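Bug #77: duplicate submission created two jobs. Keeping one. Sequence:
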Amino acid sequence: MKRLAPWFLVCGLLAGTSAQAALTVGAPAPDFNAPASLGGNEFTFKLKEALKQGPVVLYFFPAAFTQGCTIEAHNFAEATDEYKTLGATVLGVSTDDIATLKKFSVSECRNKFAVAADSDGKIMKAYDAVHDRRPEYAQRVSYVISPEGKILYEYTDMSPEQHVANTMRALRDWKAGQ
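Kept job's structure:
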């Protein structure tokens, strides 16, 4: 049972919670720059620069290579072309180090979208995405941020299943209202 303890901490305990994120629709999205990887290639992700290209789907996840986070990364990877059609950039953020995320960006994100390292937790704190029971991990929270830097949509649920569908719907609604 000792060998399974870390797995239960990340997948079991984290899956059972669903606190709500505090950033509300219309709130300004905190700006940030972070080391990131797309297809194993490291670069600095700059939110302000990404928003010049269109909306950003920013999602926080607890830990790379865990079951729920792998499912979520696969879901976002499968939907990346549709996000691009809507003019959106997808970015996943966790407290994993950049070396881990370089591997994750290739295998689980399938070279489709970037993931950023928030090793000091400043980004997840700014977005109120800190896990309520395990503060070294992020809560599973997805935001859609408008090109003007405002929160268009927020969704918090430790299940990875609806984050893509919900953020996609929010982007379509936003696009239809332009």
